[in-house]
Amino acid sequence: MESLMAYVVGIMFTAAFYMMLRRSIVKLVIGLMILSNAANLLIFVVSGMTRGAPPLIAEGASAPAGMIADPLPQALILTAIVIAFGVLAFAVVLIRRAYEVVGTDDLDQMKDTDT
Amino acid sequence: MSPEIILPVFIPLTAGALSLALWRSIRYQRILGVLANILLLWSGIWLLMSTTDQGFVTMEMGNWPAPFSIVFVADVLAAIMIVLTGIIGLAIAIYSLASTPRGHEKFGYYPLMHLLLAGVAGSFLTGDIFNLFVWFEVMLLASFALLTLGGERAQMEGAIKYVTLNLFSSAIFLSAVGLLYGMVGTLNMADIAQKIGQVEDTGMLTVVAMMFMVSFGVKAAAFPLFFWLPASYHTPQVAVSALFAGLLTKVGVYALFRMFTLVFTQDVDYTHNILLWAATLTMLTGVLGAAAQFEFRRILSFHIVSQIGYMMLGLALFTPLAIIGGVFYIMHHIIVKTNLFLVSGFTYRLLGSYELKDLGGVYKYRPLLAVLFLIPALSLAGIPPLSGFFAKFVVIRAALEAEAYLVTFVALLVGLLTLYSMIKIWAEVFWKKVPDHVRNTEELKGNLNEKHAWAYYLPMVGLAICTLIIGLYGQPIYELAEMSAEQLMNPQLYIEAVLGGDQP
Prior knowledge:
Chain A: It is a multi-pass membrane protein. With 115 residues, chain A is mainly α.
């Protein structure tokens, strides 16, 4: 399972970079979306996948018995998803405004501020 | 309990929330903007006094014992950075009173400014690596909004580059945090530093170190990852430019200092050698880029890049003296660079342009402004007895002692080229006559139609005085840098302060 997920993460990063290198700003944002999801999935995979062992502590005990799944990565991913959502909402508005103001969706045309 | 460590985050967050509540009243938002930053500066000074007293100040969130809780840790370096944040925040808040257009103020300029400062302060104080990511994002989101406030064409184009590169760097940072968590099973920086020695796969560790270096390198605008900076920093309102120029890249530099003195010190030959070359090339490309520019703020933007190189050089040499130099350089640079942007904003107010060819005659009509430019400009170039001289002196001396002669040569050359750039601005903006094609010179020649002229001058004069103090009365400042360097070079102190002395 882990090696399969590793390939999935790899493919997602590849797809993200490919999309980000395209000229259209819409594809750029799609690339950023995939990139943040790839990072989240990476956290999920590298912190170890444990199947069917929820991190629950039995009543009366102070520590869980046996191997359990690590609950922390969930918290991290959830935080990262929320942040990525906010940032992407901004990015979508930005590309819309940029398209209106600049009048093109081609990144190669947006060279006014370059040096 | 030590409340001073949480205040630098709490004050701007509260002020931001209050400004939102006062959405309709620009007047109260302005007053709050100045007041909150005075408080921020005060809390920073309090924190600095505590840290010089006790060494470290820590706080565990929710009273859970560290490594399980998120901790806030302040050492001397973090406290210095908070004081600088307060100084810059205050200068910008006052400057904004005059320079920020009404429309920007109506659309949440002040709440965003507070939020940005909260993000910056949180990044300096947190002792948890995932929390650092969160503060980065708080800071970034506020900066995105500030950068695009106004919505002009150049801003949009600059913002796309800025947003993309910064999100990209955040994604790399997040991946690196995940990989590191997979290896050491903790997010507390002190705990990571302690457990990182037990990791068997040192090759993978170096990979993760490089990912952190790339991610912070993008934020710090290091070679070859700096292209977003000169493409975007000259586009927003000048007060926003100045705020970004002073603080944002330095957060990246601070994160580099933190991670590469505390956590990633197991393969110094490899990682710090890469840092050394990155630093050298950052200095060189930044200054050469500036030499090719003829727009006031673009020149200054490129100089941010070249100055970042000096700070990284201090870290890369990794000797106690070099770290002192790096920290001293950060202190000097934040103040000087912000001041230069503020001066450029005032010349824009007078003549309505940032292009050097459309500016001129400022020395004749506004001698005080010329002096206010000359102090930070010469300081940036490293002319004694101003702050930049001592900062450069310490870094270059450390480089000589480490027998890195090529790097020393580059650092000296870059100093010379910086002087060239500053002279170029001086000659064009201040010394030459007002160009004939410039029609609107009434405001330059005297009758400045401005109610708040004092709000332009006060921050510039204040920051210039800070520069002079660092230069002429440098011993106490140098001692502060010395103390922070001692703490940075002994990560064991940090670990003990966070986790308690009884750890194995």
